[in-house]
Design brief:
The protein is an alpha/beta fold. The longest helix is centred in the N-terminal third of the chain and has 19 residues, at 79-97. It contains 14 helices and 13 strands. Helices cover 40% and strands 13% of the residues.
Length: 363
């Protein structure tokens, strides 16, 4: 029987890369979003509002997926609202699919806030885990919308009889426009602003992140991991960390990124310099850069998500993920992290999201 994938959140970093991977492997692939991605060849767009059950029923009336990949979330003002809204999104989708009895597997993408705490208490004293983080670590004694999403998957699986997998990437590096958590694109935009303004490429984060070990997750690795878990029986009904497979220190990587853009790298100087503050007034400058170099996106806020980059780079502890569970079960994909960033920068240049010149002319 042909494998039919429904990718929920196909316009985001994870969902778009997953759609490419599934289509390349020969899956019939549907991409669900409020504003579906129309740029991926052979992706079947599905427009629906996950918070509107009637919208879900209508949009999925003629679609019978065998595999569901849930990569979407919505940010709200409080964690209580995050729980209510994001839990409802998962529940509404799986309720709409339940009568079809077509679903064999559901994969849910969450992340390391499973271990570090939600936005309201992110990486704060009292919520700091042992590192590397491992899948067997217990849930924190605090509300977390990732837990609510998981519980909705578990409940629907018990009701409908499908298998599941939970995927917990570290910071995801990949291309997306308008994404709320996009460290790679944020640093590319910041570097471009530094080029245009003559500023140094200043480290914005904490001493712990500057000096400590870290890892990240290439969106292409995550896509392969999602398909692997969905199609590997030994990986069913399990939660997994997923990262590139190498570790690095930002004190090393920061200079590699600066060199790629032809910039002076400035490291940790004893003070955190949040990116959100550094680029707060740079919207007009970005518009000038976009006009001068013919960029496809003149709104800085659709390229950069400084608030989330500040969360990641400002953490008071080093953070890395243990991948031994996936490795033991046969997942062997590996990706060098510096090349994850360089590949992204080259893709952003090709798509006219940053200038095609490595050295932008400063005013």
């Amino acid at each position: 029987m042909k494998q039919v994938a429904l990718v929920v959140g196909a316009s985001g970093i994870t969902g778009s890369n997953l759609a490419h991977e599934l289509i390349e492997q020969g899956w019939l692939t549907y991409g669900l979003a409020r504003n579906p991605n129309q740029t991926i060849a052979n992706l079947q767009p599905v427009a629906a509002d996950l918070l509107d059950p009637d919208s879900m029923q209508a949009a999925l009336a003629t679609i019978d997926p065998t595999h569901v990949f849930f990569t979407s979330w919505m940010r709200n003002a409080t964690e209580a609202e995050n729980i209510r809204v994001n839990g409802a999104m998962v529940r509404n989708l799986l309720d709409a699919l339940a009568p079809k009895k077509s679903v064999q597997h559901v994969a849910l993408v969450t992340g390391l806030k499973h271990y570090l705490g939600p936005f309201d208490a992110y990486a704060k004293e009292g919520f700091l885990p042992l590192t590397p983080v491992r899948e067997e670590h217990p849930r924190l004694e605090i509300e977390n919308f990732y837990y609510a999403q998981e519980d909705e998957v578990y409940a629907a699986a018990a009701r409908d009889g499908f298998t599941w997998s939970i995927h917990r990437p570290h910071t995801v590096i990949g291309k997306a426009v308008g994404n709320m958590m996009n460290l790679g694109s944020t640093l590319a935009a910041y570097a471009t602003i530094c080029q245009a303004s003559g500023r140094p490429f200043r480290w914005p984060g904490s001493k712990a992140q500057w000096e400590g070990l870290s890892d990240v997750t290439d969106a292409r690795v995550l896509a392969k991991h999602l398909v692997w878990a969905a199609t590997t029986e030994a990986a069913h009904n399990e939660a997994f960390n997923v990262a590139n497979g190498d570790v690095f220190r930002w004190s090393w990587l920061w200079k590699q990124l600066a060199d790629w853009f032809g910039l002076e790298a400035v490291g940790f100087d004893g003070t955190i310099h949040p990116l959100e503050e550094q680029i707060a007034g740079d919207g007009p400058l970005w518009q000038e850069i976009a006009s001068r170099y013919g960029l496809a996106e003149s709104n800085l806020n659709r390229v950069a998500s400084a608030w989330h980059t500040d969360l990641d780079l400002g953490r008071p502890i080093e953070v890395m993920t243990d991948m031994s569970k996936s490795r033991k079960l046969g997942f062997s994909v590996y990706q060098r992290t510096d090349e994850s960033f360089f590949d992204l920068f080259e893709q952003m240049q090709a798509d006219r999201l940053i200038p095609a010149h490595k050295t932008v002319i400063a005013e």
